[in-house]
Every structure is written in structure tokens, then in C-alpha cells.
Amino acid sequence: MNLATRYLGLDLANPIVPSASPMTREVESLERLEEAGAAAVVLPSLFEEQIEHETMAINAALNFGAEISAESTEGYFPEMDNYNTGAGDYLGKLRAAKDVLSIPVIASLNGTTHGGWTLYARVLEEAGADALELNIYIVAADADQTGAEVEAEYLRLVEAVRAAVHIPLAVKIGPFFSSMGNMATQLTEAGADGLVLFNRFYQPDIDLELLSVEPNLVLSTSDEMRLVLRWMAILYGRVGASLAATTGVHTVEDVVKLILAGADVTMLASALLRYGPELITSLLDGLSGWLDERGYESVNQARGSLSQLSSPDPKAFERANYMRTLVEYSSKV
Predict the structure, then answer these.
(1) How many domains does the chain have?
(2) How far apart are CA 78 and CA 105, in angstroms?
(3) Which pLDDT tens digit goes with each residue over 4-49?
(4) Does residue 225 lie within any of the structural domains?
(5) CA 240 to CA 182: how far, in whole Å?
(6) How does pLDDT run across 227-276, given as a tens digit for each residue?
(7) Parallel, antiparallel, or unpaired for β 194-197 and 169-173?
(8) What are phi and psi of 230, to 5 degrees?
(9) What is the widest separation between alpha-carbon atoms in the chain?
(10) Among 18, 128, 231, 290, whose CB has the most other CB atoms within 10 angstroms?
(11) Residues 6+ apart with CB under 8 A from 153
(12) How far apart are CA 56 and CA 39, in angstroms?
């Protein structure tokens, strides 16, 4: 079975790609993922806030009490460049991954300022990343900011980074746009070579004992794949960008459904944290078996065959599906 696919202009052996997570943080686990059959890997995000925080903290520590010694003002303390802040550690792991892996290594970037996005995008490109994934995590919490202004901010970021680097550029976004299809088109026109559907915004929780707001991470389930499935099917053939499906990809069935909807690659995080790299081998075996049993010769032949463009019932991905779902469920009660 020919499982080859193409994503961001990169030729991949198959459509299984570990997404940014603790599983892709260390070189040893990256090697295990490649051995299990991963076609490419996405490193965890480099956060601009973390770099700035570490740099400021080290600088403050180095200069504590400097004013009491005349020697310190003449170079007693080492330069900041000699310290390995968050960016240095990340770049070291990126270079190490490139040295030991034969599959593409995609860097991930999460910034807060336009300068930070473009600066670190260039740094990651220079360090050897095969592609760059922009992990845009904007929570529109300002009630005075309009939806159009939020969307314009996304587009400015993509345009700025696209102008700064030459490597393929993917944009990982959430589904919370008033017109997802139009936004996908605009992001592609702004310079995105690929769209990653969807970013999973982690929701805070309230600790009733401490009466405090706490971070809360819950691993995904296959049920969360349905939103991705809908928009994958709608966007396939309508945007000139690669399409990656992420969130809720756990089983062979999930992978197959997303490919039939139009995904170029399916990305895993929660499933790998639960079951380990060996899951990839199982998914690839299952995908090959499913395609073979139904007479497909390749992933490319199956891709998009049940997208909205190809579906005998295109409205199934829109409002008509709402009433039908309610009617069919109530008839079973």
C-alpha cells in the first residue's frame, strides 16, 4: 500500500505526524517516534514569553548589587550571550534532532509581539528547521475589540512571518471565527502554506478549596475530532494550502475519516501520551489494511473522496445535518 503524502511541499512516507507535545521534546523520544513510523515531527512551541522572562531574570541576577563595586561596571559580570536561555536550549534540541533524524523536523513558534514572531522565526529557520508552524493562541478577551480586528491581527502575523522566512509555513488556528472558510482563504493568501485544524485552547478551572483559578489540561478524545472533520471536508479543494488535522486523532478510524474528508496529514498528541510511540505502527498497519480491503491503492486515491466537494450529500456538513441528527436520535429513545 502506498501511504505517501505531501505536506507543506514536503514528501512524507505516510500521513501520521506527532504534533507539538512533551512527546516531541527530547531527542530520545523523537528517535522512538521515527522508529515507530512517524513521517515527520513537530517540536513543542518556542514561547516568546518564556525567552523574555528567562533573559530578564538572568540579567537581574547578574546585576544584583553591581552598583556597589567599581569592578563590576568594567566587565566583571559575563555577557548575557554566554547564558543559555530558553531560545538557546530550544535551538540546541532542534539541531540535535536534525542530526539524528532522517524525517522532516517542523519547529513551532508561539509569540506575543510582531518583533518576536519574526525574530524567532528567522532564528528557527537558520537553525535548520524544515518548516515552521505558527501556533497562534489569541483569546479575544477584550470586549472592545471586534472580530474583524482579531482576524486582521492573525493576518498581519502571518504576513510578517512569511516575509521573514523562506521555509514552508503552517498556521495552527482555532475554530472560533465567524466565517471559518473565508478566514482560511485569507490566511492562505497572507502566505500560509498549510493550515493546522484546530488549536486546542486549554480552559482554566476554579479550585473551590483555594478559591483560585488554576490551569487544567485534559487529554483529548476521539469525539473532539468531529469539528475538525467537518471543516476539513468543507475546506478540501477550496483553499490552496496543505491541510493538517489535529485534536481527537486516536484510532485508525479517526485517521481514515480525516483522510477521506481531505487531510494531507493527521497529527497526534494526546493519543501518543496515552499509548506511546508504538501506537503509530498500529495506526499505519490499520490504515494499510483498511485501504487494501476497500480496493484503494494509495492514500492519495482516498483523500477527499468524502469531502463536501465529492460527497453525494454536500449539505450533510452544514445545517441539514443538525435536524437529521436530532430526528434520528429521538427515534431511538
Answers:
(1) 1
(2) 33
(3) 999 999 999 999 999 999 999 999 999 999 999 999 999 999 987 6
(4) yes
(5) 12
(6) 999 999 999 999 999 999 999 999 999 999 999 999 999 999 999 999 99
(7) parallel
(8) -60, -50
(9) 85
(10) 18
(11) 138
(12) 38
Residue 329 placed within a domain: no
Strand pairing report for 169-173 and 131-135: parallel
Please check whether residue 65 lies inside any domain of the structure.
yes
Q: Is the peptide bond before 198 cis (omega within 30 degrees of 0)?
A: yes
**Global pTM?**
0.86
Q: Which three cell numbers stand for residue 328?
A: 434520528
Residue 152 neighbours by CB distance under 10 Å: 12
Question: Are 45 and 135 contacting, i.e. CB atoms less than 8 angstroms apart?
Answer: yes
Comparing CA positions, the residue from 218, 241, 226 lying closest to residue 172 is: 241
* Domain, as residue range, for 229: 5-308
Residue 318 lies in a domain: no
User: Is residue 238 a contact partner of residue 185, using CB atoms and an 8 Å limit?
Assistant: yes
Tell me the Ramachandran region of residue 6: left when phi exceeds 0, alpha when psi lies from -120 to 50, beta otherwise: beta
Q: What is the 3-class SS of the chain, one letter each residue?
A: CECCEEECCEEECCCEEECCCHHHCCHHHHHHHHHHCCCCEEEEEEEHHHHHHHHHHHHHHHCCCHHHCCCHHHCCCCCHHHCCCHHHHHHHHHHHHHHHCCCCEEEEEECCCHHHHHHHHHHHHHCCCCEEEEECCCCCCCCCCCHHHHHHHHHHHHHHHHHHCCCCEEEEECCCCCCHHHHHHHHHHHCCCEEEECCCCCCCEEECCCCEEECCCCCCCHHHHHHHHHHHHHHCCCCCCEEEECCCCCCHHHHHHHHHHCCCEEEECHHHHHHCCHHHHHHHHHHHHHHHHCCCCEHHHHCCCCCCCCCCCHHHHCCHHHHHHHHHHHCCC
**Cα distance between residue 33 and residue 18, in whole Å:** 8
User: How far apart, in whole angstroms, are the C-alpha atoms of residue 191 and residue 182?
Assistant: 15
Residue whose grid cell is 486549554: 202
We report the CATH number of the domain holding residue 24 as 3.20.20.70
